[in-house]
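Appendix C reproduces, verbatim, an entry submitted by the partner laboratory led by Prof. M.T., so that reviewers can inspect both the input and the predicted structure.
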Amino acid sequence: MRIAFILFDGVTWLDLIGVYEPLTKLKSNHFLEDLFVDFCGFRKTAKDIFGFEVNAVKVRNDLSGYDAVIIPGGPGTRALQHDTDFISWMQTATTVTYKISVCTGSLLLGAAGYLADKNATTNFQEYEALRPYCKQVLHQRIVDDDNTITAGAVSASIDLGLYLCKKWAGEEAAETIRRKIDYHSPV
């Protein structure tokens, strides 16, 4: 399983890390030995609004070679959904099996055309912004519509990570990882 985490300026890091932590434990706990993760960006670095910066491992790479693309949210998504160069890069993921977002990352999935005729969710403050991109906005924590998976606001990121653990490696894996990270919500 090859996963691309998408980096951009204005990201909310917890959106990314909340999913990353449980998923990487799939490999370290021997549930998904072939897990491989890349941090992919449109630019070499990505900063949140406070200046915390992370370097991308891959820059403007073709995303079609991944099994999953995970897009976090953050204030930067509001402008990026209208950035034609960024969205064109996102569209290189057309053949990717799993298109996944946390919070307002769904606006980027939508702008790339991946939510057309799909149900989706986002941060509760951005339901109206998401509405033009999808069939229906659902007020749910996680929405899985034919492997296009969207999660609500930032606190849903760990829930999404555990959901993906269960989807890809089974309930035992998800429950083991939930206990190891001492997360108290059920899988």
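DSSP finds seven helices and eleven strands in the chain. Additional entries are available on request from the coordinating office.
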